[in-house]
Specification:
Blueprint (H helix, E strand, L loop, with lengths): L2 E7 L4 H10 L5 E5 L2 H10 L7 E4 L8 H12 L1 E8 L14 H23 L1 H4 L5 E5 L12 H20 L5 E7 L8 H4 L2 H10 L7 H11 L11 E4 L3 H4 L9
Parallel strand pairs: 1-2, 1-4, 2-3, 4-5, 5-6, 6-7
Length: 254
Amino acid sequence: MGETYTLITGAASGFGRSIAQKLAPSRKLVLADINAEKLETVRKTCAAPERHLVWARDLSRLEGIDEELASFLAAKNIQIDHFVHSAGIFGIQFVRANEMAFVNRLFNINVFSAMQIIRPLAQKRVNQGALRSITFISAIGSRIGGKGYYVYSASKGAVNAMSLSLAVELAPGVRVNAVLPGTIETEMSRDYFADPDFVASIQAIHPLGLGRAEDVADAVEFLSSDRARWITGQELVVDGGRFASKTPSLKGIN
C-alpha cells in the first residue's frame, strides 16, 4: 500500500485553494482542477510544496473521470484517505429562460463529477480501503430560496442529499459531511463584491459580518480530522448567522 493523500477538487481558486493551504502543513495533497498552471501556482504557495501532487482534469466532462483517477493513483502508487469536493460553479438563470446546457454544466461539476470520483475511491481494489472521510462544499443557497437560483440551489440540494445517503452507505469506515457557506468573496463572486451597495447588503444580512474563505477551510479541516470521528451525515452551516436570522435572499450568490 502506498502513501495516503487528501484529494481536493476545485483547488486552483476560491474555497479549494484556501482548503489546500490550510491542510498542506499536516497532509500530502492531490490538487485537482481544470488549469494545470494555476494548480502549480497554488501548490507552490502551500507548505512543503514538494510533497503535493497535481491532477489537471476538466470535471465538466464526465466521461472517463473514474478511470483516469484510478490510473493516476496507480501510477503514483498512492491512495486517498480524505476527499474534499470543493469544485463548483455558480450561475443565475430564470425558469422562463432555462437552457439545458447551463443545467448540465452546473450538475456535472457540482454533483455528477463527485459521484464519478467517489466510485473508485470506495473500491478496495483501487484505493485499498484507505478512504476515511468525504467533505462536500455545498452552499446556504440549498436552504434559502431566491429568484434565478433554482438550478444552482437544486444542484447544491442534491449534494446535501448525496452526502446524507453516502454517510449511511459508507459507515462505519467512511464519514461523509457537507459544509454550507454563506456569501463569501472568492474569484467566483468578486464582481458582486466590487459593488459597495452589494457589500453593505451582505453585511446587513450576516449577523457576524463578512466571512472569509479561511472560515470554510477551518470547518473542512475539522470535519476531515479525527476530532470529528463521531460526526457523519451532517450539514455544517458556516454563514455568519445568515440562516439563523431568516433574512430574505438577495441578488448575489449563495
